[in-house]
Design a protein that fits this description.
Layout (H helix, E strand, L loop, with lengths): L1 H29 L8 H11 L5 H37 L5 H32 L2 H11 L19
Helix pairs in contact: 1-3, 1-4, 3-4
């Protein structure tokens, strides 16, 4: 009897936490994501627009942004479907803890892939920039909130 009670409490806790996660994600999606309009990729693209790139580098950067946006749109659609599946699971009378946790992992994996896509695009564009252009872009973006800066040496490596 006590094991059954613990399992119910665990399921309720997971359901409440996951419900909050789904609601927060839906709100973020309606307002353009966590980073405002365009997310991190849009901010970098706006910053690159202000740099004086060679025509070749501008064309290469545009191709990188286009490829990333295409992948991010596909991932956004997959995340929406995964969130809907989570909602369906949570709407069940007695949701399976294992199914809910597996779906939470699926949602998280898609969110992680989207972040990796943005980071990959940023690093590819960064390779096109001179040191001065990169510093100018960093200045335009302002200081990051939270987390250590890994490129204070200006060369992309963690300072010693």
């Amino acid at each position: 009897m006590q094991g059954s009670w613990k399992k119910r409490v665990a399921v309720i806790a997971v359901v409440l936490a996951t419900g909050a996660m789904v609601a927060a994600s839906a709100t973020a999606n309606r307002h353009g994501g966590r980073h405002g309009r365009g997310g991190m990729l849009g901010g970098i693209e706006r910053g690159v627009d202000q740099l004086e790139l060679t025509p070749e580098n501008r064309k290469a950067a545009d191709a990188i942004f286009d490829e990333a946006r295409t992948e991010l749109r596909a991932l956004r659609d997959q995340r929406r479907a995964a969130h809907q599946q989570m909602k369906t699971l949570l709407d069940e009378q007695s949701p399976s803890l294992e199914a809910v946790l597996a779906q939470a992992d699926a949602v998280s994996a898609l969110e992680t892939q989207a972040k990796k896509t943005e980071l990959e695009a940023m690093l590819k564009v960064r390779q096109l920039l001179t040191t001065e252009q990169w510093q100018q872009l960093r200045t335009q973006h302002g200081p990051r909130r939270g987390g250590p800066r890994c490129d204070d040496a200006g060369d992309g490596r963690t300072p010693a």
